[in-house]
Amino acid sequence: MRPLFHPSIEDVPLAAILHALSDPVRVKIFAEIVGAACAQTCSAFASVNDKIIPKSSLSQHFKVLREAGLIRSERQGVEMHNTTRCAEVDERFPGLIAAIINAHAIEAGRRRNVG
After folding, report:
1. Which domains are seen in the chain, by residue range?
2. What is the signed CA dihedral for 4, 27, 98, 95, rounded to 10 degrees?
3. pTM for the whole thing?
4. What is the largest CA-CA distance in the chain?
5. What is the layout of strands, in order, in the sheet containing 40-41?
6. What's the distance, CA 21 to chain centroid?
7. CA–CA separation, 3 and 38 (whole Å)
8. By CB neighbour count within 10 A (0-12 exposed, 13-18 middle, 19+ buried), where does 89 fall?
9. pLDDT tens-place string over residues 59-85
10. pLDDT at residue 24 above 60?
């Protein structure tokens, strides 16, 4: 298996982070990883927003998040364990992640109240 690519945070443009989090499935995955007390496996996100996510699509979502410098993924046996790189991103773009996570929570709350 080839090694996973994790860019240096200095090499990650703001546009890559914003692009990665512009997809509703990816922002939901990222928000849940941010809120978790420990690393999350990819299989924990087989269903997002009550939709089954095909394994190939899920792999692509994690690749986009990883290549945007938002998560770190480590293989442990047959599973991939994912953690955030919030501290690194926050050092480069202070307040960005908190603002995005807060906006996501507000939007998710509105959807629950409407639906």
Report:
1. 12-110 (1.10.10.10)
2. 60
3. 0.90
4. 45
5. 40-41, 79-84, 71-76
6. 7
7. 22
8. buried
9. 999 999 999 999 999 998 889 999 999
10. yes
Find how far residue 91's CA is from the centre of its chain. Answer: 18
Residue count of the chain, please give it: 115
Round to whole Å and give the CA distance between 108 and 90: 23
In SS3 terms, the chain reads as: CCCCCCCCHHHCCHHHHHHHCCCHHHHHHHHHHHHCCCCEEHHHHCEECCEECCHHHHHHHHHHHHHCCCEEEEEECCEEEEEECHHHHHHHCCCHHHHHHHHHHHHHHHHHHHC
Q: Taking residues 28-55, what's their average pLDDT? A: 90
**Residue 98 to residue 94: CA distance in whole angstroms:** 9
Q: Using the structure block, give the residue that is written with the tokens 């994912």.
A: 82
Q: Degrees (nearest 5) of the Cα angle 73, 51, 38?
A: 30
Q: In the block, which residue shows the tokens 């599973």?
A: 79
